[in-house]
Specification:
By secondary structure, the protein is α+β, with helices and mostly antiparallel strands. About 35% of the residues lie in helices and about 15% in strands. The relative contact order is 0.22.
Amino acid sequence: MPGIDFNALRAEINMEDVLNQLGFTPASRSGSQLHGPCPVHGSSSDTSRSFSVNLEKGRYYCQKCQSQGNPLELWAAVHKLSFYDAALDLCRALGKEVPQIKRW
């Protein structure tokens, strides 16, 4: 299994791209802050505001299920994947090459 350069991957992906791939539609927006139904635990209401995303910081948090993190962690949580598998799957979904660890 080749090594993934997770730092490079985190620098390449952004929260907005991941939210678009997940089909997330915010219930409200204020600047770079979004609120809406949580894709991790699957909020049943489209008007739910338990899920909060700061696009500027690239972080999310759900008040109901306490899931939190960066775009890669969100992808892993929603799809119930390990970080390694989530990185491969997310790169595929975004049409990006998987950044490999460069050995010297």
